[in-house]
Amino acid sequence: MPLKAVLFDFNGVILDDEQIHHQIVADLMRQEQFTLSQEDVQHYCVGRTDRACFHDLFALQGQPISEFRLRRLLKVKAKIYRQHLETLDKLPLFPGLMELLTQIQAAQLKLAIVSGALRADIRAVLKRLSLDSIFPVVVAAEDVKASKPDPSGYQLAMKRLNRQHPGLNLSASDCLAIEDSFAGIQAAKQAQISVVGVAHTFPFHMIQRQANWAIDYLDQLELDRIQAVFNR
């Protein structure tokens, strides 16, 4: 089956902001009188929604979090994150992103974002980069009940692409996901989607063990070779 669509994760694939998120989470947890290691934040937060992240970090401390307290933390984190991005003269994109998007568009493939980030944050970044029109389908944290590695975000993205493009008849075997986290790779694979893992966040050898293809940087993604595999 030919490749028809490329589904991007957002944080850690498009925007180089994982460390920003990590620092905000660590600071907020410190205010809650909890001390976290970098490994704790990576394990429980990378590739997942903020809701899932805070929920599991509190459980790690043996203190289940109330819905009221969780909502307050989510609101504060979102505000701090947006304020931080607004202070940046240039958004931290990963090298090779724009060139890869040009290749994908030239190949007339459909594009979507499947992320645990908030819709407002994703749309604000895309608008600032003048990319909002090429990502008409965005599945964000608010759209699904379960965080990655649950596959529902990818399944919803395929449904929305099919709704937007009648006659596309998109299935999982026609899609390629680009992910940087273990949770994201697992989500795509549970949706039966092939995955390119990019070693932006975790070492190459760890990504290589889980993804169908592994690359260090986005500019190493050889779209024509991947298309050839799909066409077999």
Uncertain runs: none
Strands of the widest sheet, in order across it, are: 3-2-1-4-5-6
Oligomer: single chain
The level of helicity is: 40-55%
**DSSP strand tally:** 6
Class of secondary structure makeup: alpha/beta
Description:
This protein is α/β, with parallel strands linked by helices and about 230 residues long. It has two domains: about 5-15 and about 95-230, Rossmann fold (3-Layer(aba) Sandwich), CATH 3.40.50.1000; about 20-85, Putative phosphatase, domain 2 (DNA polymerase, domain 1, Orthogonal Bundle), CATH 1.10.150. The chain contains ten helices and six strands; from the N terminus they run E-H-H-H-H-H-E-H-E-H-E-H-E-H-E-H. It has a six-stranded parallel beta sheet with strand order 3-2-1-4-5-6, sandwiched between helices. It is globular and about 55 Å long. The model has no long low-confidence stretch (mean pLDDT about 95).
Task: Describe the structure concisely.
With 232 residues, the chain is α/β, with parallel strands linked by helices.
Q: What would the keywords be for this entry?
A:
232 residues, alpha/beta, DNA polymerase, domain 1, 2 domains, six-stranded parallel beta sheet, 10 helices, 6 strands, 47% helix
Layout of secondary structure:
Layout: E1 5-8, H1 18-31, H2 38-45, H3 50-60, H4 67-87, H5 97-106, E2 110-114, H6 119-128, E3 137-139, H7 152-164, E4 175-179, H8 182-190, E5 194-198, H9 204-208, E6 213-215, H10 223-230
Parallel strand pairs: 1-2, 1-4, 2-3, 4-5, 5-6
